[in-house]
Design goal:
This protein has a domain at 125-262. It is built from 6 helices and 16 strands. The protein has helices spanning 57-63, 104-114, 157-161, 186-190, 207-210, 247-256; strands spanning 3-6, 9-12, 18-20, 27-31, 39-42, 71-76, 82-88, 94-98, 117-122, 130-137, 147-149, 164-166, 194-202, 216-219, 224-232, 238-246. The strands form 4 sheets. The protein has a 9-stranded mixed β-sheet with strand order 6-7-8-9-14-15-16-13-10. A 3-stranded antiparallel β-sheet has the order 3-4-5, with no helix packed on it. A two-stranded antiparallel sheet has the order 1-2. The longest helix has 11 residues, at 104-114. The chain is elongated. The protein starts with a strand and ends in a 10-residue tail after the last helix. The structure holds zinc ion. The site of zinc ion has 6 residues, from loops.
């Protein structure tokens, strides 16, 4: 943890300092080695919050984008259950930064516990399995209302650059044969309707994130985040897509909005 109570004041770890956990009251020992992120650890016991993940440099960098009072904030549920959120914004949005893999059960419990929660997942461990392909028109745009896309697959070149058919050219939706649109210039489709949506293929995905009920943003160490989305199409089916959201925009939204669905909604 980044903070522990020393004489009742939240302090960062520094060599030789002892503190107290603000949740369980145990003694906390400062860990300040050369090769580790300086932090506090419970003395003799594991972290009193079973959801707590050991902090990496990545966690710390993210948390430091938020004011100190917003980091490591205890949340008490109506039934008395207590957990420590990585960040709680001034407006009551919770953020959890997740580096390790996670099982469905824990993911769901945390979503139910915090409710107004966004996940930020460290994408570097699986960056080589995550392929981002062609852009899509915003699903709410006029042009999108006529298009049905094929899911992009790594190695299937047609789908990597965008393969679709039009409802207007295939009025019989029960037919198994469709006429592909090969005429339309893909760039012109996006001219006035691109809002960061893309197709992608995640080989050996971490399935739990695809089933999350709270928004999932993946951080590949770039200037943008990759938000997992479901893209509704003209024939009422959906495909998994992503939305590219500049980090700057994300940070503006997450500190000014009150609800998770208002973030990156442009
Ligand atoms: Zn504790």
């Amino acid at each position: 943890m980044q903070f522990a109570l020393v004489d009742n004041i939240r302090r960062e770890a520094s060599p030789g300092l002892k503190g107290i956990c603000d949740n369980c009251g145990s003694t906390m020992i400062s860990k300040c080695g050369d090769r580790i992120v300086h932090h506090w650890a419970h003395h003799r016991i594991r972290n009193c919050d079973p959801w707590w993940e050991n902090e990496t440099e990545w966690h710390r960098k993210w948390k430091e984008l938020f004011p100190e009072r917003c980091r490591e904030v205890l949340h008490v549920a109506e039934n008395g259950e207590i957990h420590r959120a990585d960040v709680k914004t001034e407006n009551g949005i919770y953020i959890e930064f997740q580096h390790s893999s996670m099982n469905d059960e824990e993911r769901l419990s945390r979503e139910k516990f915090y409710k107004n929660l966004v996940w930020i997942v460290d994408g570097l461990p699986f960056i080589n399995n995550f392929h981002i392909f062609h852009g899509l028109p915003c699903s709410r745009s006029e042009v999108a209302k006529d298009l049905v896309w094929y899911k992009s697959k790594k190695g299937m070149r047609g789908t990597e650059s965008g393969m679709f058919w039009r409802i207007s050219e295939n009025p019989d939706l029960t037919s198994k044969m469709v006429l592909l649109d090969t005429k339309t210039d893909r760039k012109s489709l996006l001219e006035s309707s691109y809002k960061g949506d893309h197709q992608y293929d995640w080989v050996r995905p971490r399935q739990t994130w695809l089933e999350a009920t709270c928004p999932v943003y993946i951080d590949f160490g770039e200037e943008y985040l990759v938000k997992l989305e479901n893209y509704p199409m003209a024939n009422s089916s959906k495909i998994n897509t992503i939305k590219i959201i500049p980090k700057k925009r994300f940070l503006e939204d997450i500190t000014s909005k009150r609800f998770i669905h208002e973030i990156g909604d442009f």
